[in-house]
Amino acid sequence: xxxxxxxxxxxxxxxxxxxxxxxxxxxxxxxxxxxxxxxxxxxxxxxxxxxxxxxxxxxxxxxxxxxxxxxxxxxxxxxxxxxxxxxxxxxxxxxxxxxxxxxxxxxxxxxxxxxxxxxxxxxxxxxxxxxxxxxxxxxxxxxxxxxxxx
Length: 150
Prior knowledge:
This protein is an alpha+beta fold. Helix content is 53%, strand content 23%. The protein is built from seven helices and five strands. The chain has helices at 5-15, 19-28, 33-51, 82-85, 88-104, 109-114, 125-136, and strands at 58-65, 71-79, 116-117, 120-124, 140-149. It is elongated and about 60 Å long.
């Protein structure tokens, strides 16, 4: 099946998945864009499960202070390489997770990963992390979280 290059570009722009993955998703779904999006999400989660045993020794500490100044969060989020730790996608994930902790006050990392994502209730934080793993190609671990509240 021949896949429209414009659809591949649109899918890549929206998901940041590789061109090969975008092409394969569109081929597998016979050019159905919405089904291709779902295919890429599922494929990213499968990729993530293959990487979960890899060592994570790089990463960042992300901070978030809620606008009222009475809630603050620090999270330690790790990946495999310093290169990935400096990417915008990794930094965005760290920021989103810190905002989630500020808003939902999980008791620990395990309960955080099970929570519905505040921006999309169809996705848990664990799934959001797995989607980012699929996109970046490295294992990602939320190591620690601390929430302060006045």
